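User: Hi! I'm working on a homework problem where we have to compare a predicted structure to a textbook description. Could you give me the structure for the chain below?
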Amino acid sequence: MRRTSFTLIFYLVLLLPGLSSAHVDRGLLEQKSQALVSALETLQGESGAFVDSFEGNPSLDALFLVLSKRLGKLTPELKQQGLERIFSWREGRETWAEVPGGTASLDITGLVLLCLEQVGISRNDRRVSTGWRWFLRKGGVKKLNIGSEMLLAPLRILKSNFLAKLSPKLLTIKYPVPGNIKNMGIFRTLFIPLVAFQHYRKGNLRGERLKPLNKGWLQQAGRGFGKLRYAIGSNDRLAQEALGWILKRQTNEGTWYTIYQALMNLMALQEAQDNGIGSFQKEIDRGFRGLLSWRGQTPDGQWFMQQIMASGWDTPQTVIGLNELPDRKKYVSSAVYHKAVDFIVNTQVRVKGDWAYSTPQLVPGGWSFDPANPDYPDSDVATANLEALLKSPQLATDPRVQRAFIRGHKWVMALQNSDGGFPAWEKGTSSTFNSFYQMLFDKAPDFSDLGQTDVTGRILKYLAHLKHSRFKYLASERVIQKACKFMLKNRSDKKKNLWEGRWLVAFSYGTAEATDALLETGCWNHHDAWSSLHWLYLKQGADGGWGEDHQSFIEGRFIKSQSTVMLTTYAIQPFLTYERLYRQKTGKRSPFYMTLVKAMKFLMAKIPENGLIRERSFSGVIAKKLWYANYALSPQYMTLRAFGRYLQLPFAANY
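Assistant: Happy to help. Predicted structure tokens:
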């Protein structure tokens, strides 16, 4: 009886928001929105891009120190800055974690310790001796993740039994065998340089006569993978084709897509040069300078290596946030806004990249996370840019913007897999290869590029908005329905309607993105969404925010943590959509109105006087259970987005 009474009272409180007079001060909300915009304006560059740092854990800094030493470029200043970053991360502990204050990680600790040893920090050094004992007690090198092996082997820190077996002949596996290079997706960016590195490192040239390479030929190389062009020929010729692939993908700035890829590519070139294959010093020097340009700084001025440059993501997301404001011109100047839109149009990818392996006839039209690297545009970034352009006034008046929009839309739609889901980088990546890789290696990081629910969800939301625009004829109902079926089929918990995220931590984010998408498209009504919203409601903290521990990925269930702006701005999105739809239908506030009020107050309280939110939540995910990232600018534009959506809510009779 007591339990029944409690349940009844609980639902009465939830379903009767009119019992409370609490509300959001709209004047204060507008003031906070202006502060957010003013801070964003200070981060816009001459190109029109909005960009801030993209921070990972200090294993990147440790790897960079060893890379610098291997290339003969380690200076006392670089070493000192790297060590300061590495040791401060521990926060008084003896081990290292994936995220600040997180659980000790064998892989991150191992990566750091092994790298420090290479730059002169001995195992007996008092700064690392306890950490070494912990690492060895946990199994040491033998327990390292295959992902860690793949980073350490090219730096000659350890030998990998798996990598030692790699042969250039693997590049000739015919399509559609799962091991074919076309089926590996983004994993090939790590696999190809490893093949070249291993070949030249072990000197497996079998007496072949080496000749200086023709750089012109190398620039055309890398096209024969999977076609058995040299299956009967020399391994050296195949390895040279891998070198050509590496050189062709080096950007004008000298970088590659991520720091992981850059590290492996530079070491492969160095090994080939050391073996007399050719001179690559110009490319190596340019690559190192490119990595130096990627260094960012923490709020307290500490230098660190970024995983990737993020202006291709930060800029459209900022424009989306500005578009959500009821009267954008009141908050931001036209010059600032138009420069950002011009940047979006100017950085559209117009050349074919790796994605063309699976869709060779598709006309280029995506956008890349790092605009300097056109080889890896992705559907998620492209959709963010399309969403930004969709509400821009230039789309209605500028033919150039219209052409970019339509071209980009067609590119994204062509990436939908047969199961209805959207991958990030390319269509049709082999699930068989991914399953084999996961079975072969314990705790293997997730490098797969199969259909992803969070990416698919964001594309669905874009299509829902597209249906209410002048370009509604582009919104295919067939694409929407297939994507909705994919979303429902790939729930982590079908009974509770929960999803696990791929690119942020974890269940709160994944469930929020999926629920918001299904509501926006009409694939779900308010009754369908109730269980997901109710679950999110129960996970809201007493302070009004949401927080989730990274251990959620390890244990496969939600684990609560301290509330963060980052996760709160994502968790609030389906509640904003539900509130809008509910008010449009009934003219009243929804049962979840107080959830919104608490969340909005939490976010407003987190905005400092200068309007610049500095939160290091490391909620971003590079590889689940191993590598996480801090999107420095994301809390800023996502909070602005939430404020704008709240200010646009239709008037409710009992507001």
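For your comparison, note the following. The chain is about 50% helix and 5% strand. The first strand starts at residue 54 and ends at 55. Good luck with the assignment!
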